[in-house]
Amino acid sequence: MDSNIEILRQVADYCSLIHSTPGRIRVRVSPKIKELQNEVNLHKLDEIIEKIEGIHSVKFNKMVGSITILYDNNKFPQEIWHDLLNGINLESISQKINQIKKEYHANEFK
Description:
alpha+beta, 4 strands, Cation transporter
């Protein structure tokens, strides 16, 4: 199985939708996500997310355990976020992540 799909599945298990509108999503993150620290680099996650073209901002609220993401709805339709949180179409989302990784690494040393 693709490692991205497994990571997506694991992270999604700790997240639940609070609210979303086109271009903005707010997600509750369970404190139990710390269980993944040995498998997923959670500390770099916000850095990587913010560098993705089409993501305008990522705001972590550790006090209430939520993440708010402002994004370009044309690049990331609401359905992608809902699929991610529900563990649906993870292969398609993984392909998008692989493309983003390539772009990220290509631009990392510019």
